[in-house]
């Protein structure tokens, strides 16, 4: 980039490189900077002498002369989710010992991932270089549960350590370089799972960086450059095709180009194709992401305190999920599956050449759309992207988009809405989300709501009733999907952004990776 508005250039970000090792060792003999124990509320039950009944806590506390029991009582540590206490100690191989609460029980990947994130905060505060994690109660876990728990904890640690400091004048790198996971087994299968956690986490971090990037830096052209870097880095499995406006015009993408028309930054239609390094291809999938690098609303400009125009850099969160998944899969290299990663990247701006309310645009499948709201632009770009995806000969398509405020109103800030007419595809993606810990909720595709999308002069309008707005948007997208192709739409406008941390979440990456891997042989 030779020039950006404001002369802002991101510095190289530090991504945590953590070496994870699975060990079966005596926790009292482990040597390092900090040993952290994950405890449920039941693990803290005492006997009549106020001693821990849990075997690991009892063993640690006897070495520490009762200090752990004393401190947890004084600090009112009860094992509730997110509670933590850390002690500087002598008498153990570790310089510090910490307790982190897991609540009444911890059984899901989401629980263990959150535990890993709290652990990362404790390790940062202690300026630890090497650390260890143990669960106070892991005996009841099956071998499969131990694998999934270790994977989720490792993912949480990496993501908890990550800080996006590319746009700060000063930053400090975390000291942590190695983490031992104790008591969840050992061996090549677990080592592979921990390595896999690193691949997926790198994709999530990449997704976060894309969404966090300001629109004066991450233009459609720069997003295309970032996608091309994935293809060049993993060239043995990826190829990239970047179409300019003229090439899109040849493909009759009038719906997408109508949105892009007002911006001084030209559109870039991005297509990454993943082919396995060897063996037959059993299934072809497409992942389509909404790629509005900034959305002003167009002539229906976003106004008022609830419009969040200052956050409209996250309107390319769907594309970040798609490319984050591509980066992870480039490292994993699954066999038996071909995957297409497709983004129609552009900005929705205002100018004398821009799309007006009342204009009629024609999509690449020939359907005409009366634009009754220029701020319902994402679906216009996705229309041509979905047609293009179906033309790649794929059997299944999943699109992700920060599409409607209505979905955030319905499901809140942590749950994405899922729309699909296909129960089999829904089952596949929901199973993937159970592994990733990302929250999805299936919504109805109420066909009667299409009535509000009908136009008096064109095939349809791009916006319908405010009531059921997320459903109307999904019904619109359905018009551009081949009937032979299984299709799902994920409206991720709620979980794309963490308002408390004022930062992107990387939502969608982990679920997409799991979904693709379920199709690999």
From TrEMBL:
InterPro entries xrefs: Leucine_aapep/pepB, Macro_dom-like, Peptidase_M17_C, Peptidase_M17_leu_NH2_pept, Peptidase_M17_N
Q: List the record's Gene Ontology CC terms alphabetically.
A: cytoplasm
> For this protein, what reaction is catalysed?
Release of an N-terminal amino acid, Xaa-|-Yaa-, in which Xaa is preferably Leu, but may be other amino acids including Pro although not Arg or Lys, and Yaa may be Pro. Amino acid amides and methyl esters are also readily hydrolyzed, but rates on arylamides are exceedingly low; Release of N-terminal proline from a peptide
GO process terms (BP): proteolysis
Q: Which UniProt keywords are present, listed alphabetically? A: Aminopeptidase, Hydrolase, Metal-binding, Protease
The terms under GO molecular function for this entry are:
manganese ion binding; metalloaminopeptidase activity
Question: Which top-level group of life is the source organism from?
Answer: Eukaryota
Query: PANTHER family, per this entry?
Result: CYTOSOL AMINOPEPTIDASE, LEUCINE AMINOPEPTIDASE-RELATED
Family, as annotated: Belongs to the peptidase M17 family.
Q: How does it assemble?
A: Homohexamer (dimer of homotrimers).
Return the protein name.
Answer: Putative aminopeptidase
């Amino acid at each position: 980039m030779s020039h950006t508005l404001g002369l802002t250039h991101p510095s190289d970000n530090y991504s945590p490189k953590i070496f994870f090792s699975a060990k079966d060792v005596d926790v009292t003999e482990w040597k390092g900077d900090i040993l952290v124990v994950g405890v449920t509320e039941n693990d803290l039950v005492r006997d009549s002498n106020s001693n821990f009944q849990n075997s690991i806590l009892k063993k640690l506390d006897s070495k520490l002369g009762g200090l752990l029991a004393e401190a947890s009582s004084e600090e009112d540590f009860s094992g509730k989710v997110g509670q933590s206490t850390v002690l500087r100690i002598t008498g153990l191989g570790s310089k510090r010992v910490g307790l982190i609460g897991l609540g009444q029980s911890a059984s899901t990947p989401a629980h263990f991932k959150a535990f890993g994130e709290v652990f990362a905060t404790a390790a940062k505060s202690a300026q630890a270089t090497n650390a260890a994690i143990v669960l106070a109660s892991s005996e009841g876990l099956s071998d499969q549960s131990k694998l999934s728990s270790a994977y989720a904890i490792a993912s949480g640690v990496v993501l908890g350590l990550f800080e996006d400091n590319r746009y700060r004048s000063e930053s400090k790198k975390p000291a942590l370089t190695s983490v031992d996971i104790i008591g969840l087994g050992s061996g090549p299968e677990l080592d592979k799972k921990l390595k896999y956690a690193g691949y997926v986490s790198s994709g999530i971090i990449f997704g976060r960086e894309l969404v966090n990037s300001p629109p004066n830096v991450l233009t459609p052209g720069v997003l295309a450059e970032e996608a091309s870097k994935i293809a060049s880095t993993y060239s043995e499995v990826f190829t990239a095709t970047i179409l300019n406006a003229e090439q899109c015009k040849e493909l009759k993408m009038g719906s997408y180009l109508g949105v892009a028309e007002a911006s001084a930054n030209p559109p870039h239609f991005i297509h990454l194709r993943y082919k396995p390094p060897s063996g037959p291809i059993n299934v072809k999938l497409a992942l389509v992401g909404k790629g509005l690098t900034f959305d002003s609303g167009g002539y229906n400009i976003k106004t008022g305190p609830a419009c969040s125009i200052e956050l409209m850099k996250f309107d390319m969160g769907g594309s970040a999920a798609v490319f984050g998944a591509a980066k992870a899969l480039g490292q994993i290299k699954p066999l038996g599956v071909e995957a297409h990663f497709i983004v129609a990247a552009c900005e929705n701006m205002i100018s004398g050449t821009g799309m007006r309310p009342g204009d009629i645009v024609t999509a690449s499948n020939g359907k005409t759309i009366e634009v009754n709201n220029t701020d319902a632009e994402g679906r216009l770009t996705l229309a041509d992207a979905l047609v293009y995806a179906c033309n790649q000969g794929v059997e299944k398509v999943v699109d992700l988009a920060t599409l409607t405020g209505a979905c955030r109103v319905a499901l809140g800030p942590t749950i994405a809405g899922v729309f699909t007419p296909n129960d089999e595809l829904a089952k596949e993606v929901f199973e993937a989300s159970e592994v990733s810990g990302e929250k999805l909720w299936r919504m109805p595709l109420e066909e009667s709501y299409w009535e509000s999308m009908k136009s008096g002069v064109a095939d349809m309008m791009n916006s319908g009733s405010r009531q059921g707005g997320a459903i109307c948007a999904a019904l619109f997208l359905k018009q551009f999907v081949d009937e032979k192709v299984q299709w799902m739409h994920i409206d991720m406008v709620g979980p794309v952004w963490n308002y408390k941390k004022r930062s992107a979440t990387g939502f969608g990456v982990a679920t997409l990776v799991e979904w693709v891997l379920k199709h690999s042989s």
